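>> received
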Amino acid sequence: MKKLGVLLAAFIVSTVSYSQLQVSVGSGYAIGSAEMKLGETVTSTSVENEYGSYGEGVNFQVRGTYFLNETFGIDLGVGYLQGTDQTIADVYVPGYRETDAIARARAFGGSLSAVYKFTNNIYGRFGALIKVGGKTEAVVSDKNYYVEEPNASNPQGTTVAQAFGLPDGSYSQTNYKEDFHGKFPLGFTGALGYEYDLGSNFSLFVEAEYYGISLKRKDSELSEFNTDIVLPDGTVAVQSFYSLDNLPEGYNKETTYVDELDQSNTDSSKKLSQKVPYSSFGLNVGITYKFNRSAKKE
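>> returned
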C-alpha cells in the first residue's frame, strides 16, 4: 500500500511538472460513410433508391487538449456541422406529380477523446462523440396536377379542380419545411493527424477523422407550410389554399416517433421511429495554440 502511494505521488508530480494545455481551431469537409437509404427517385418508368449520410458536409471545430505527459493527453471538443443536401424524394411523373425533397443536417456536437503522440508531429485520438443540439431540416417542393381520378401520385384528384372550375393542367404547389429532432446519441470518433510547428506556441495541423454515429428520431415539427392553386399558365388562382394553420389531411404540425404502434392506431401524428446515419470520413485543417508548460524539467 505504501509503495502504491509512492508511485501515485510520483505520477502526480511528473504530470504537474509537464502538464500543457493547447487550444485548436479548425474546419474541414466530410463525406458520408456507412450510408443508408434516405429516399427514392421516381419516374414514370422506374424507382431508384437514394443512399447517403447526414454527416456529409462542412464542419467547424474548437478543441482543448490537456497533455498529462509527453505522450498522453485528454481532448474536449465542440463542433458544428453544416450538412449537404441529401435527396429524400425526387419524383417526376409528367402531368401527375413533380416532387423535389431534400434534407440536411444543422447539428452541434461534442467529443471527449484520449490523445496519443506517436512522434513530436504525428498524433492520434479516439473517444466518444455525442450530438448536443440541432436538427435535420427537410425542404420540400411538391406539385400535384389535378386529374380525373385520385391515385397514389395525386391523392387529391379532381376535388379542388371541380370546386373552383379550374381548366385542365391546373395544379397545387405545396412548399414546406419540417425540422426533425433525434434522441440523445452516443457514437465514436477517431483521428490521425500531423502537426507542423510554426514557433514555440503556434502550429498548423491536418488530420483525417472518422465519425461513427446514428440518430433515432424523436419528433418533428412543420416550421413552414403553404399550398397555392395554380393555373396551367402559372397564374396563382388561389393563394395559401392550405397553410400552417390550415393543414390538409395527412399532414400534422407536430409528429412523435415511437418504437411501437398499436395495430388499431389511427393517429397520423404518431409514426414508427427510425435510425438515420450521421457517420462520415473527413479531412480537417486548422491552427493550434500551445500555452507555456506549468513548469519545465531541468
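>> The chain has a mean pLDDT of 87.
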